[in-house]
Automatic annotation (TrEMBL):
Record keywords, A-Z: Pyruvate, Repeat, Transferase
SMART domains associated with the record: RHOD
Keyword Transferase: yes
SUPFAM superfamilies for this protein: Rhodanese/Cell cycle control phosphatase
Rhodanese domain boundaries: 40-131, 161-278
Protein name: Thiosulfate/3-mercaptopyruvate sulfurtransferase
Gene Ontology MF, one: thiosulfate-cyanide sulfurtransferase activity
Coiled coil (UniProt feature): none
Keyword Thylakoid: no
Length: 286
């Protein structure tokens, strides 16, 4: 049995319970969330279904989060009910799986966990993989209204800039400084380099170990406890994938109740006319 009371589940636990998890009933559903095309098709954890971050997990016309109706249809097609324990994992550093995790928490799905270390950790430790695509029966899913307390919108960020509130930038230091607009090969059209005024650079890489699993709670507390007493913490990155890892560390692992996720992130801020952007010659970490 998989404990879904915490945000993370270990590869060891999933592997030990894989026979139960990979069935097509609605108790569990493994969902792989990737950015690289063809990754799932080449191989995946037995029983896993696939979601594409760009195609499936955002409104392709407005680029906003999915509506309750759209999310309900998507999860229902994945064989998920409101009671299903969803186990999310993905490629890279679990970036987009973490984004999916935030989205499900935004829509108040209770039983959802991240596979710690993601796809890479699973593969590197030679746990089972397959290229067989499961045939999962559709279910009824009804998403409630979202929890707006964990989402920051542009107006909230503007207010934080004005008041000197806590803004954490989860991008790499060269992006924060404005040396580059995006990591090599990644550019969703940011027109200006730099960061939101007053933001502190807390790269998402600092939250994970070299094997891509999260650092221990004690290590994360050492990184972030100076922000614990801030009235509100807003995390952002470029398109929201890396800040989802930081949000998970702060809100779900450390249990901070004052953390919100700026969904628009720097793609929205850096492309908006009239909004200020800071550059820096070095990304000093507070």
């Amino acid at each position: 049995m998989v404990d879904a009371t915490g945000p993370l589940v270990s590869a060891e636990t999933v592997a030990a319970n894989l026979e139960q998890i990979q069935t097509t009933d609605a108790d569990y559903r493994l969902i792989e969330v990737n950015i690289q095309q063809g990754t799932y098709e080449s191989s995946h954890i037995p029983g896993a279904v696939s979601l594409d971050w760009q195609r499936d997990l955002r409104d392709t016309e407005t680029f906003d989060v999915l509506s309750p109706a759209a999310l309900s249809g998507l999860l229902g097609d994945c064989g998920v009910t409101r009671e299903t324990t969803i186990i999310l994992y993905g490629d890279f550093f679990n970036w987009f799986a973490a984004h999916a995790y935030w989205l499900l928490r935004y829509y108040r799905h209770e039983n959802v966990v991240l596979l710690d270390g993601g796809r890479n950790y699973w593969v590197e430790n030679e746990y089972p993989m397959t290229n067989e695509v499961p045939s999962v029966p559709s279910r009824e899913y009804h998403a409630p209204e979202p929890d707006e307390s964990i989402r920051a919108r542009r107006g909230d960020v503007e207010a934080a800039v004005e008041s000197g509130g806590c803004l954490l930038d989860a991008r790499a230091p060269p992006e924060y400084r404005g040396d580059i607009l995006a990591p090599p090969g990644w550019n969703e059209g940011v027109q200006r380099g730099g960061h939101i005024p007053g933001a502190v650079n807390t790269p998402c890489r600092d939250t994970i170990q070299t094997d891509r699993r999260f650092r221990s709670r004690e290590e994360l507390a050492a990184l972030f406890d100076e922000y614990a007493t801030d009235e509100q913490i807003i995390v952002y990155c470029r398109v929201g994938e890396r800040s989802a890892l930081v949000w998970t560390a702060l809100a779900e692992i450390l249990g901070y109740e004052n953390v919100s996720y700026y969904y628009g992130s720097f793609v929205e801020w850096g492309n908006s006319v009239g909004l200020p952007v800071e550059n820096a010659t070095s990304a000093d970490l507070r």
